[in-house]
Amino acid sequence: MKPKVAFFEFTSCEGCQLTVLDTLQRHPELLEVIEIVQFREAMTERSDDYQIAFIEGSCTRPSDEEKIREIRTQAQIVIAVGACAHLGGINAIRNRMPLDDVREYVYGDKKDWFETYPARPLSAVIKVDAVIPGCPIDRDEFAMAVTHLLQGRMPAIPDYPLCIECKLTENVCMFLRGQTCLGPITRAGCDAICPSCGQGCEGCRGLVPSPNLGSIKEALRERGMTEEQIDARLSLFLTYQTMQMDGVTPA
Amino acid sequence: MKILPKHSLKAWVERLRATHRVVAPRETYGQYIFEEIENADDLVLDYHTSVLPPKKYLLPPREDLFAFNAKTMEMSPLIEEIQPTVIMALHTCDLHAITLLDKIQGTGHTDQHYQARRRKTTLVSIECLKPCMDHAFCKSMGTLAVPEGFDVHLTDLGDRYAVDIGSEQGEQLIEGLSLFWEPVEADYDRVNQVMAGKWPNFDYRLDCDVTDLPDLLAASQDSALWDEVGDTCLACGQCTKVCPTCYCFDVLDEIDLKLEHGKRIRVWDSCLIEKFAVVAGGHNFRSSQARRLRHRFLRKGKYQFESYGLLGCVGCGRCALSCPAHITPIGLLNTLAERRRPATEEASSRS
Amino acid sequence: MSTLKVDVHHVTRVEGHGNIVVDVENGELTQCDLQIVETPRFFEAILRGRAYDEASHITSRICGICAVGHATASLRATEQALGVTPSLQTTLLRKLNFHGEILDSHVLHIYMLVAPDYLGLGSVIPLAKSAPDLVLRALRMKQLAGDLCATLCGRHTHPISMTVGGFTQFPKPADLRALRERLVASRADCDATIQLLQGLEFPAFERDTEYVALHRDDEYCFIDGSIASSDGGIRPLADYREVTNETIVPHSSAKHARHQRESYLVGALARFNINYDRLHPRAQAAAEALGLRPKTINPYLNAAAQAVEVVHCTEDAILLIDQLLEHGIRHEEPAAPTRMSGEGVGAADVPRGTLFHHYKIEDGTIVGANCIIPTGQNLANIELDMRALVPGILDRTQQEITLALEMLVRAYDPCISCSTHMLDVKFV
Amino acid sequence: MTTLLRETLTHSSIYMPTPARIVEVEQFTEVEKWFHLELPSGFTIDHKPGQFVEVSILGIGEAPISICSSPARSNGSFELCVRRVGKLTDALHRLDVGSMIAVRGPFGHGFPIDRFHGKDIIFIAGGLGLAPLRSLITEVLDERGKYGRVALLYGARTPNDFLFPADLAAWADREDVECHVTVDRPTEGWDGPVGVITTLLPKVKFPARNTVVAIVGPPVMYRFVLDELLAAGIAEGNIWLSFERQMKCGVGKCGHCQMHHIYTCQQGPVLSYAEVKNLEEALS
Ligand SMILES: Cc1cc2nc3c(=O)[nH]c(=O)nc-3n(C[C@H](O)[C@H](O)[C@H](O)COP(=O)(O)OP(=O)(O)OC[C@H]3O[C@@H](n4cnc5c(N)ncnc54)[C@H](O)[C@@H]3O)c2cc1C
Ligand code: SF4
Ligand code: SF4
Ligand code: SF4
């Protein structure tokens, strides 16, 4: 019996779901091994009878919570897909700013027309069984996650830092190129795609289990970054995680 | 010994390329990477250490162990048709590292994957005449001298290379080639002169004798330095990835979506990663970064020596260069030596 | 049917969340809205306080499908603000990369989002069974487009190596040559795409409107240029506000735009209508084969215009690669800013239409931002189309009417998740 | 007859396993299962008590598991007792009789059985530790005459967690084995001892000088048991422990199992207290 799978999205750019579609380019057999019963971005047919829910996007308004809980009740396995669902992602950048100011800047005096609250990862709303990290996710990692599910186990993702993969790829370290990088504290799994393309890691896959934040900040400082710039770098994708480490969680 | 005029180097490499994959350092963003050379014009012999050591041709970062069909249980080994490879311009530290790896991989159950690659690999090393970078401490580690273990060894004499042949395999690379000349008296003089002149260019950077390292480390097991350094270590693992003598690996299975065809692979692992020594039940036998760092250093400076008679560090300095937290073997070992000294002196004054 | 209520909650096979609400009472159309219910994402607000070189990486996250487009417009805005002049190589690489995005997005839209409607299916999944060749072709074309972007900027969704002033990674000539070969080979897939569209029966609905697109005299324009209207007039990019005139409407978290008429249309059809003369001859021939000529006023034919652009971008990509190979790829440092403060507008005609980014930068830090995305500009036009369409088809079943409306919305290839943004930016 | 190890090592890759079929399964506890495995015809496992095999499920991975059957009784088949804790062991637990797995080995040094001859023996097992010990116990009992007195001390979390119930019953019935069990937490109907395993030690009164001890259990148990044994005067060289470490290769190459200079998979997993007493990483 093929597992029945549904895709959902909350606040996001839908890039991860597009990546899921892209996965078909290299793995067309995906459609033979799972039964997709809901995928709004790609199909009109829908059924609420599913076992596995892949959810993209962060929760950014109270009214989404109920829908997210519904999915949790229906699905046996819930998997957070991408940085927004996993970490709050880019959406959480605003969590460090006064929300009212943010709303007013974009919608002026109509700011109250639209419901919103500080962005949060799925795991702040429901129990999440596994995550596929990244902004966007990596297609091969998605395929591997499905493989693991078909084998009856939870998708396993690396728990070591990006530097490991970066060195396996033999990139010249961004630090040696006079630039900066969050690789030492970021979870691997993307094959160090950013350093390979000449950009320091921005942390989209989230922190490793025991990040040495003090030491990375020191390394960044030493390369001439100001405290503001360091904060900005650590709050591209890591706002929610770092605020949580500081004991701050949004109401 | 033979002589190869510098202007003949390209011609030699082109000859080698007809029968071998020739790999050599190539510059990229101010660092060097060993890569197959497509054109003898690209050849660089004067370089500072490479990002990954040439060991990557013997123990690839990711290596297929065997392929399988999980449904039929068929398995087939994937020690593929390995191309005969010439590694050009190895520094002597890297040569020492390969000698150690040869021992390790050949002890006990021999690793056929390593052996298969090793057999097809010919090592052309080059005499280091000046320090390649600030972080190197080969002279202290005793790896600046040419050991055995090379197939061909080049010494830069200005307009020509002195060519030493270390093995049958090396002999085959130059056999019958008119590019190589017989040396004359003056060539021997020149070699001696170059060799005598090179040593003062290098400093001893380790504050203790290299033969004392196992003792120093044994005595420093409980040093507070491990904790101090452990606090700054990012646990990024770069030092272990770039080290020419590290060889730990993890084993993983990959399988297709139909759960049928797959392969088992191994990937370089790192003892500085938190999960390296965790067992079922969650117990971590090396529970702090301080202990993980200590393990790495004791392994380099003590355990390898005890098990294989060779030190596990060849002083290439790669780990020091790569460490974003500036943790360096020289800094660390010299601090240990310094902290031990008063105690030792006290002890000796008492006796 | 004199009374009708259509309420499509979350239109499927579009990017982002939108509802169609139509209310007809006694033959009278009382409501006809496309409601955008996407949650607000506040990109303009979160850009404030960021270093100038982070903007393109943040704004590419506005939309996973137009990520290269957002990055390009963003970089152009920053470069305008800081007086950066990118090299010829950078310009060529950006254009080539952009074609990758257009190809990827158009193929996705034509094959996976639109075609199922015309073939009476709910999605591409049953199509994979009934017409595997068609689906494999689409996947092959997308793979090529994706590989093109990956070679140039690391990946299509959220490009990596595009940066202010240039690139941080360069394709190898061998990679470009390989891509060129595949592009040439994909001409057959382009032809097949045109054939596919020839076989589809598009609804015979027409409504004249104003068409707006970026324009340049010397090429079929996707990046920079000026703003041209089918109603006449060419304006510089800096005047984008006078064109877009955004207003907030209560039923939509995205804003509505109007230029010289009540609404206007952006996207492939608008580009086709305005820049037809600059299409590659093969693309013009494809248009011919589809019976498409400017000005085409049936919005359903946007998909056909996209197919014409697929041909154009494939051909132009080949030409660009030739040009790049001829110049030789150099590893060049990105062009540096000549000042650290300033204000600039960047524009790109992304798959769905014209996109504007406008930044104000002080001492290298962004202090004000405005982004106007194509779907926002199209929303008013879609609603007017819906209003024009419904009375003429009231004799059909509710199901047929609903489908006709959904297909209309989908024809625009709306990308709703990014359409949420502000109006009336007052830069402080 | 080809022995498995020789076969493993003459493959062109030491990392390539040999298929084996599950022929019998018994669920001991909620998380522990016993497997009887059969090798292809013509193969024997030829192991020593305390040795382990690397068990594979192709597509999932590999894990070291001790052989729990006696060498003398192996004859082309062998037994494993496996606790479900992670990816390989979960998958193994889901397999039915008839399924194929694959094995490499046996690896490591087992218990130095020759040095047990003529001695009194105390077996101390904590939880799953009984699995590797069972191989040794069976061997000893099969040649009972070669040894002095024999005692088994076995501690489990609860009475529901006892492994090898049939063996336990049989051993308890024997006159020539002193069998003591304890549980951390009793359940209804349990009238045996409650407490950690060290509480059983005073029950065995063997002369220290002639006693060897074989201990296998969770890491926390070792320190406490060792303290008592040393206090009772057992020689350091007569206390044998089996060590569990992460092992990816089993052949002394992957580096995971190192405790200081010792490759547990090669020099161990069974080591004497004398060998490890100064190794902080062994007994922390
Ligand atoms: C010599 C020896 C003999 C053994 N004999 C037996 C036996 O007879 N019976 C038996 O049941 N077991 C035995 N084991 C233990 C067994 O090998 C492990 O339980 C097994 O490896 C678990 O594999 P797994 O794939 O199921 O679990 P994994 O998925 O690998 O993980 C299981 C647990 O291990 C820990 N862990 C391991 N690696 C990591 C990591 N990288 N990151 C985080 N956590 C990690 C975690 O706590 C995790 O819950 C023995 C081990 C050794 C070394
Ligand atoms: S570039 Fe980044 S990820 Fe790569 S080694 Fe350096 S710090 Fe680590
Ligand atoms: S420990 Fe450092 S210096 Fe020593 S061989 Fe390894 S990388 Fe080189
Ligand atoms: S490179 Fe430096 S920071 Fe990274 S693991 Fe090694 S010692 Fe620690």
TrEMBL record, chain A:
Molecular function in Gene Ontology: 3 iron, 4 sulfur cluster binding; oxidoreductase activity
Positions of the NADH:ubiquinone oxidoreductase-like 20kDa subunit domain: 13-149
Residue runs in coiled coils: none
Cofactor(s) recorded in Swiss-Prot or TrEMBL: [3Fe-4S] cluster
Keyword Endoplasmic reticulum: no
Gene3D superfamilies named in the record: NADH:ubiquinone oxidoreductase-like, 20kDa subunit (3.40.50.700)
Record's keyword terms, sorted: 3Fe-4S, Iron, Iron-sulfur, Metal-binding, Oxidoreductase
Name of protein: Coenzyme F420-reducing hydrogenase, gamma subunit
Originating species: Thiocapsa roseopersicina
Lineage summary: Bacteria, Pseudomonadati, Pseudomonadota, Gammaproteobacteria, Chromatiales
Automatic annotation (TrEMBL), chain B:
Alphabetically ordered keywords of this record: Iron, Iron-sulfur, Metal-binding
Pfam families: Fer4_22 (PF17179)
Domain of life: Bacteria
Name of the featured protein: 4Fe-4S dicluster containing protein
Segments forming domain 4Fe-4S ferredoxin-type: 222-254, 301-333
Record-linked InterPro entries: 4Fe4S_Fe-S-bd, 4Fe4S_Fe_S_CS, Helical_ferredxn
GO molecular function: iron-sulfur cluster binding; metal ion binding
UniProt organism field: Thiocapsa roseopersicina
UniProtKB/TrEMBL annotation, chain C:
GO MF annotation: an example: ferredoxin hydrogenase activity
InterPro entries the record matches: Ni-dep_hyd_lsu (IPR001501), Ni-dep_hyd_lsu_Ni_BS (IPR018194), NiFe-Hase_large (IPR029014)
Binding site for Fe cation: 66, 418
Binding site for Ni(2+): 63, 66, 415
Cofactors demanded by this protein: Ni(2+); Fe cation
Entry keywords, A to Z: Iron, Magnesium, Metal-binding, Nickel, Oxidoreductase
UniProt record similarity statement: Belongs to the [NiFe]/[NiFeSe] hydrogenase large subunit family.
PANTHER family in the record: COENZYME F420 HYDROGENASE, SUBUNIT ALPHA (PTHR43600), F420-NON-REDUCING HYDROGENASE VHU SUBUNIT A (PTHR43600:SF2)
Name of the protein this chain belongs to: Coenzyme F420-reducing hydrogenase, alpha subunit
From TrEMBL, chain D:
InterPro entries: Cbr1-like_FAD-bd_dom, Cyt_c3_hydrogenase_gsu, Dihydroorotate_DH_Fe-S-bd, FAD-bd_FR_type, Flavoprot_Pyr_Nucl_cyt_Rdtase, FNR_nucleotide-bd, OxRdtase_FAD/NAD-bd, PyrK_electron_transfer
SUPFAM superfamilies (UniProt xref): Ferredoxin reductase-like, C-terminal NADP-linked domain, Riboflavin synthase domain-like
Single Gene Ontology BP annotation: pyrimidine nucleotide biosynthetic process
Pfam families on file: DHODB_Fe-S_bind, FAD_binding_6, NAD_binding_1
Reported cofactor(s): [2Fe-2S] cluster
Annotated positions binding [2Fe-2S] cluster: 249, 254, 257, 265
UniProt entry keywords in alphabetical sequence: 2Fe-2S, Iron, Iron-sulfur, Metal-binding
Gene3D superfamilies in UniProt: Nucleotide-binding domain of ferredoxin-NADP reductase (FNR) module (3.40.50.80), Translation factors (2.40.30.10)
Family annotation (PANTHER family): ANAEROBIC SULFITE REDUCTASE SUBUNIT B, DIHYDROOROTATE DEHYDROGENASE B (NAD(+)), ELECTRON TRANSFER SUBUNIT
Name the record gives this protein: Sulfite reductase, subunit B
